[in-house]
Amino acid sequence: MDKGTRRIPTYYYAPRKKLFQIIVKLMDTPGSLGAVLTLLGGRVNLLGTMTYSLADGTAIMSAFAEAISVSETPQKLQKLIASSHVALENEVTESKEGLLVDTFHTGIESSMKTPMVLISKDGLAHMFEGLVRIFGSGGDVLLYNEGYFVGEANAVRTVSFLGPTIATKRIDELLYLFSVRGWGQARWADGADSDPPVFRLDDCFECSADEGVKKACSFMRGYLDGWGKVMLGREVKSTEVKCRFNGDEACEFVMDRPKDRP
User: Fold this and answer.
1) High-pLDDT (> 70) share of the chain, %
2) Does pLDDT of 3 surpass 70?
3) pLDDT band (50, 70, 90) for residue 58
4) How confident is the model at residue 223 (pLDDT cuts 50, 70, 90)?
5) Residue 173 has pLDDT above 50, yes or no
6) Which of 21, 31, 128 is nearest to 65 (CA)?
7) Are 65 and 138 in the same domain?
8) Within-domain flag for 23
9) Number of domain units in the chain
10) CA 43, CA 41: separation in Å to the nearest integer?
11) What is the Cβ-side half-sphere exposure of residue 17, based on CA atoms within 13 angstroms?
């Protein structure tokens, strides 16, 4: 099944409009998604869709939609979808007072069966700013240590899931995980084989809330040290040489070996 090109939001608010969340379990075969979308085309305007495959050969389509007709109901849409030979099950819920909330998904989970918590980028950056405001340089140390442990744990989980050979061989592709997590667009400034490698992060989340307190990306620097230790197979000591906090267009980290180690 083709992946949905528009991701469904967690909630949608449109006063005076009739909105629906449409969940369809369908056969994961070519054309299945298109058949359902064609069926719905004359009845609703899609506001966002998300599709993903399940391990049993089926797939889930989740969509937020606006009714074309004021007489549209969840029952009518369910009956319409059930008439399709590719739809195995379906559920349609309607908005209340213009507010539609995703009640089907109860969290985010990666393919490694790791539960995740959704938090806004600005909200997390404000939390980091608050730590430094309260604890001063101790806040930066705390952020670095927490980043290190998170980076190391994420890398260990990735290597365990993919295997050490494929994980290190495809390390360039794994940089896309930073973007998927909303942390920024990551790449090697001079290539992964440069010595030492320079990690570049455009739109770094840690810089998104500049309140004049934090001056460096301490959490991300720690994350790279923990992540790099596992993924690069050696101890890493990152130095942030460019940062958006200082007016640079992106954050860059030189991932060098610790000076007191061979």
Assistant:
1) 92
2) no
3) very high
4) very high
5) yes
6) 21
7) no
8) yes
9) 2
10) 6
11) 16
Which CATH number is 199's domain given?
Answer: 3.30.1380.20
Q: What is the mean pLDDT of residues 241-246?
A: 93
Instruction: In whole angstroms, give the CA distance from residue 62 to residue 23.
Output: 5
**What is residue 5's predicted lDDT score, i.e. its pLDDT?**
42
Token code pair at residue 41: 């085309």
Range of the domain at 181: 121-256
Q: How far apart are CA 5 and CA 12, in angstroms?
A: 18
Provide the whole-model pTM: 0.71
Does residue 112 form part of some domain?
no
Is the domain of 142 the same as that of 180? yes
Instruction: Indicate the residue among 82, 106, 130 that finishes a domain.
Output: 106
Structure tokens at 15: 């006063």
Q: How far apart are alpha carbons 195 and 182 in whole angstroms?
A: 28
Does the residue 6 lie in any domain? no
In this structure, the answer to whether residues 246 and 127 fall within a common structural domain is: yes
Is residue 85 included in any domain, yes or no?
A: yes
| Average of per-residue pLDDT across 115-119 | 77
Q: Are 219 and 209 in contact (CB under 8 A)?
A: no
11: part of which helix (H) or strand (E)?
Answer: strand 11-13
159 and 61 within one domain: no
Identify the CA nearest to 89 among candidates 76, 75, 102, 78. 78
How many Cβ atoms are within 10 Å of 202's Cβ, its own excluded? 15
Segment 35-56, tens digit of pLDDT: 999 999 999 999 989 898 988 9
Of 115, 143, 43, 123, give the one whose Cα is nearest residue 84. 43
